[in-house]
Design a protein that fits this description.
GO molecular function: oxidoreductase activity, acting on the CH-OH group of donors, NAD or NADP as acceptor
Order of helices and strands: EHEHEHEHEHEHHE
InterPro entries: NAD(P)-bd_dom_sf, Sc_DH/Rdtase_CS, SDR_fam
Helix content: 40-55%
Strand content: 5-15%
Number of helices: 7
Structural class: alpha/beta
Distance between the termini: 42 Å
Pfam family, one: adh_short_C2
Largest sheet: 7 strands, parallel
Protein name: SDR family oxidoreductase
Strand order of the largest sheet: 3-2-1-4-5-6-7
Family: Belongs to the short-chain dehydrogenases/reductases (SDR) family.
Number of strands: 7
CATH class: Alpha Beta
C-alpha cells in the first residue's frame, strides 16, 4: 500500500472495465484519481466507489478543448497530475474488405487521435513537475499480431505502440521527468470484450489462480502492472511495450 502516495492520476475510459479497475487500484495505492468517461454517470460511479480521493468527469477524448479543460479541472480539484492513463476505446469488428471508412476513422479518432491529444496535454503539463511522471497508453495484442476481423482497431493500436516510443524519446531528449510506456493486453474480461460483436463467452474470470491457455484475463491483471509503471519503482523503464497476454504472443498456432 502507498506505492502511489502523493500522485495524481487521470484515467480515461474509467466508467467500466480496465479504466475502473485501474482507477480503483491507483486509489488503493494512495493516488488521487480523476476518472473520465464519455458516459459521465459511469465515471461518477467509479469515483464514488473510491470516495473522497476521486472525482468523475465527462470526457470525449476526441475533443481537443476538453483535454485542456480536464487537466485544468484536475489541477483545481487535486493539483497538477503526475499520471495519465490513455485507456478509452471501442471496437467495431470488420475485415479489410468490409470495414467502412466511417468505422476506420471513428476507431482511429478515439484510440489514436485521442491518445495523441492526451499525451500532448500531459507532456505540456508534466514537463515542469518536481515529481517523476508517467504516461501509460493502452495498446493491444492486436498491435503485435494480425487480427483479421479487427483491421481498424489493430491500425489504431499499432499507431499507439509507435507513438508511445516517440513520446518517450522526446521526453528523454528534453530531460523531462516523464516516462511513457504501452501495455498490450490480450482478451481481458471487460464489457467491451464480452460484447456480442467480439464474441467472448464462458465463465467470469476469477481474480486469483492460474488462467488456462486461451482464457480471458482479469482487469486487475492489467491494473496491477499499471500501478508498477505509474510508480517510481519503474523509473528506469520508458518506451517499453508490455504484453499482458498469458503467453498469447508466443502461442504456437494449432
Amino acid at each position: 500500500m502507498g506505492r502511489l502516495n502523493g500522485k495524481i492520476a487521470i484515467v480515461t475510459g474509467a466508467g467500466s472495465g480496465l479504466g475502473r479497475a485501474i482507477s480503483i487500484a491507483f486509489a488503493q495505492e494512495g493516488a488521487r484519481v480523476v476518472a473520465t468517461d464519455l458516459d459521465g454517470e459511469t465515471a461518477t460511479v467509479t469515483a464514488g466507489m473510491i470516495g473522497e480521493n476521486a472525482v468523475g468527469l465527462v470526457q470525449d477524448v476526441v475533443e481537443e478543448a476538453r483535454w485542456k479543460a480536464v487537466f485544468a479541472e484536475t489541477e483545481s480539484h487535486f493539483g497538477r497530475p503526475h499520471i495519465l492513463i490513455n485507456n478509452a476505446g471501442l471496437v467495431l469488428p470488420a475485415t479489410i474488405e468490409d470495414c467502412t471508412l466511417e468505422q476506420f476513422r471513428r476507431q482511429n479518432s478515439v484510440m489514436l487521435e485521442g491518445v495523441f491529444l492526451g499525451c500532448r496535454e500531459a507532456v505540456r503539463s508534466m514537463k515542469s513537475s518536481d515529481q517523476l511522471c508517467s504516461i501509460i497508453n493502452l495498446s493491444s495484442m492486436a498491435a503485435l499480431q494480425g487480427y483479421s476481423p479487427f483491421v481498424a482497431y489493430a491500425a489504431a493500436k499499432g499507431g499507439v505502440r509507435s507513438m508511445t516510443k516517440s513520446v518517450a524519446m522526446h521526453c528523454k531528449e528534453q530531460n523531462y521527468p516523464i516516462r511513457c510506456n504501452s501495455l498490450h493486453p490480450a482478451g481481458i474480461d471487460t464489457p467491451m470484450v464480452r460484447q456480442e460483436a467480439v464474441g467472448a463467452g464462458g465463465d467470469e474470470t476469477p481474480e486469483t489462480g492460474m488462467i488456462p491457455l486461451g482464457g480471458l484475463g482479469h482487469p486487475d491483471d492489467v491494473a496491477n502492472l499499471c500501478v508498477y509503471l505509474a510508480s517510481d519503482e519503474s523509473r528506469f523503464m520508458t518506451a517499453g511495450e508490455y504484453p499482458v497476454d498469458n503467453g498469447t504472443l508466443y502461442q504456437p498456432q494449432m
